[in-house]
Amino acid sequence: MGRTSNQNAEAHPRGWHSRGYLPHFDGGAALPQTVTFRLADSVPASVVTGWRDELTEHPEPEHERELRKRLDKYLDTGYGARHLLDTRIARLVEGALWYFDGVRYLLHAWVVMPNHVHALFTPLDGWSLSRVVASWKSFTAKEANKVLGRTGRFWHKDYFDRYVRNAEHFALAADYIECNPVKAGLCRAPGDWPFGSARFHSIAGAAGTAAVPGRNP
């Protein structure tokens, strides 16, 4: 009975909540949200602690915005082991994002970077944002460690998320995600990056049709 209650709680939107690290907003079905999750070694803990100390005087909303801005910039330097540069792991992660598209959520835009992942998606009925992200991270961590022959934490324990306010915000969020490899100096055009939704726009443009990625890895 306790197990069922926990599963039901996770299936429903939780609104604002925290696991003790970062605030999250889980709006449930019909509310698009962006999420960023990263490898465990992608940003040294001492760096984050230093940022938090510097930002203690800032009001809470401004504090989190600035922290996220600094984190995004640091992630783009490609610090850490960069396991996601391994084609096997990048395909694994991208496949996991696709797998339940149309079943648990609608996946709108995504990119798998060397040490982090950005995604824009809308949870469907019965699937909260936290539950979707937990399923992605749990499955890919186990499988990636098997492929790499390693043990230990693969993903950082928390993630950043933000709900989409309107159509303009949706467009800006999708553009930010798809242009991240260009911003990080990894390629010249968004469609050149092999593990992101932007490449399907390029395929569609060349073919004159709508390109839809497969839903299974």
Q: Return the string of H and E elements.
A: HEEEHHHEEHEHH
Rg over CA atoms, rounded to whole Å, is 17 Å
Quickly give the structural class.
alpha+beta
Q: Helical residue percent?
A: 40-55%
Provide the CATH superfamily of the domain at 19-166.
Answer: Transposase IS200-like
Look at the structure and give the mean pLDDT.
85
Strand order of the largest sheet: 4-5-3-6
Number of strands: 6
Shape: globular
Query: Could you tell me the strand content as a percent range?
Result: 15-25%
Distance between the termini: 34 Å
* CATH topology call of the domain at 19-166: Alpha-Beta Plaits
Count the DSSP helices.
7
**Oligomer state of the chains in this structure:** single chain
Poorly predicted regions: 1-25
CATH C-level class of the domain at 19-166 is Alpha Beta
* Main sheet characteristics: 4 strands, antiparallel
CATH architecture of the domain at 19-166: 2-Layer Sandwich
Keywords:
217 residues, alpha+beta, Alpha-Beta Plaits, two-stranded antiparallel sheet, 7 helices, 44% helix, 16% strand, disordered N terminus
Any overview of this molecule?
It is built from 7 helices and 6 strands; from the N terminus they run H-E-E-E-H-H-H-E-E-H-E-H-H. With 217 residues, the chain is of the alpha+beta class. It has a domain at 19-166: Transposase IS200-like (Alpha-Beta Plaits), CATH 3.30.70. The strands form 2 sheets. The protein has a 4-stranded antiparallel β-sheet. A two-stranded antiparallel sheet has the order 1-2. A hairpin with a 3-residue loop joins strand 4 (105-112) and strand 5 (116-123). Helix 4 packs antiparallel against helix 5 (129-148). The chain starts with a helix and ends in a 10-residue tail after the last helix. InterPro entries: RAYT_transposase, Transposase_17, Transposase_17_sf.
